[in-house]
Design brief:
The protein has about 375 residues and is an alpha/beta fold. The chain has a single domain, classed as Metal-dependent hydrolases (TIM Barrel, Alpha-Beta Barrel). The protein contains 14 helices and 9 strands. Strands 1, 2, 3, 4, 5 and 6 form a 6-stranded parallel β-sheet that branches. A 3-stranded parallel β-sheet has the order 7-8-9. Helix 1 packs across helix 2 and helix 2 packs across helix 13. It is globular, with a radius of gyration of 19 Å. About 0% of the residues have low confidence.
Length: about 375
């Protein structure tokens, strides 16, 4: 099966006109590695039968909450790589969550394998480069919710078969690992006075380090964040794949400057989320993509340009900026960066170069 989409590389000037931006911005975008650290679209495929191989419109709510990504649009947008998330069900038992992860991993792999001319599952920078050279989208596989493995961390070996590149320790609910940053105290640990990472959670971080799997500290509460870094291998990068920053918009979901510095100290990256509420705009109506740049700029001003990245959370129930509702409008970010006087080198780093550096540091 081959995906059907428009190849804007054939006429970048026309794409620039369609997006209302400069040809310079489009050509820089096309020449860059464009990697999204967090895409949630597979959740809709599992729950609602959303066919990732079919080109969709903007859905019932105008690309709010879902219908922001599918494989044809991702290919048309020339997104060279993305972390595809398999999200744990917080309501299940530990055994059912592990079974659900295994089922989800098999299902996602089947979908991606059905379009081999367009998509390649990758685990390393070398594999990413090979996929890019072959003109394919590079799919990194990830898990959101370490509670998939809270019965036994060693289950990761048999379940993932070295395919998983990243695990987000916590999601929106408490688990045996610890507490999320969410003010909604749900989960079996919610009523306990455990603010940091549990002993099991600390051991799980060590286990991920040993397997060279990224420890993702999105969603975890502040105490657990620093507990995880305390036991994290100092020679390996820790990451936060999808977040905003308190320095632009104080919010329970966002990182403060001390957390930004802590991630930078490991050599990791911080991916800026596209959810308008976390960015500081109105929830349902959204704001502008310039807010994404505000958050990226704060990261750069605080810890430098080597640590900022993109982590959209597309299809994760988010409300995107209204001038960038789907992945198809991503080049508008480059125009906004150019308008602020950012160098081509800085822009390339943010779009994907910084993540590739961390992946090299983690896996060689």
């Amino acid at each position: 099966m081959r995906l059907v989409y428009s190849d804007h590389r054939q006429d970048p000037a026309a794409w620039a006109v369609a997006l209302g931006i400069s040809r310079e911005a489009v050509e820089l975008y096309l020449a860059s590695d464009v990697i999204d650290l967090h895409v949630e679209s597979y959740s809709w495929a599992r729950v609602c039968g959303y066919d990732l191989r079919k080109r969709h419109g903007r859905g019932m709510f105008g690309a709010r909450y879902y219908s922001q990504v599918d494989l044809p649009r991702l290919r048309e947008a020339q997104v060279s790589g993305a972390m595809w998330s398999i999200t744990a069900n917080p309501m299940g038992t530990p055994g059912s969550r592990l079974a659900g992860f295994r089922h989800g991993l098999a299902g996602l792999c089947d979908v991606l394998a059905s379009v081999p001319e367009d998509v390649q599952v990758v685990r390393t920078v070398a594999e990413y480069r090979a996929a890019r050279a072959a003109g394919r989208h590079a799919a990194f596989l990830a898990v959101q919710g370490g509670n998939c493995f809270e019965r036994d961390a060693s289950a990761l070996d048999a379940a993932a078969d070295d395919l998983i590149v990243r695990i987000t320790l916590l999601h929106m609910s408490a688990s045996r690992l610890g507490q999320p940053s969410s003010p909604l105290r749900v989960g079996w640990l919610a009523g306990q006075r455990q603010e940091g990472l549990s002993e099991f959670g600390r051991d799980f971080v060590t286990a991920l380090n040993a397997r060279r799997i990224f420890v993702d500290l999105a969603h975890i509460n502040r105490a657990g964040f620093f507990d995880a870094l305390q036991v994290h291998d100092p020679s390996l990068p820790a990451i936060v794949t999808h977040t905003g920053v308190d320095g632009v918009n104080p919010c329970w979901r966002n990182l403060d400057d001390a957390q930004l510095r802590a991630i930078a100290d490991t050599g990791g990256v911080i991916g800026v989320v596209f959810h308008s509420w976390y960015l500081g705009d109105r929830y349902f109506f959204g704001g502008g993509a310039d807010r994404v740049i505000d958050h990226l700029a704060h990261i750069i001003e605080t810890v430098g340009e080597d640590f900022a990245a993109l982590g959209s959370d597309f299809d994760g129930g988010i409300v995107t900026p209204r001038d960038m509702p789907t992945c198809l409008e991503l080049p508008r970010l480059v125009q906004l960066m150019l308008d602020r006087g950012w160098s081509d080198g800085r822009i390339r780093k943010v779009l994907g170069g910084n993540f590739l550096r961390t992946l090299t540091q983690l896996r060689g």
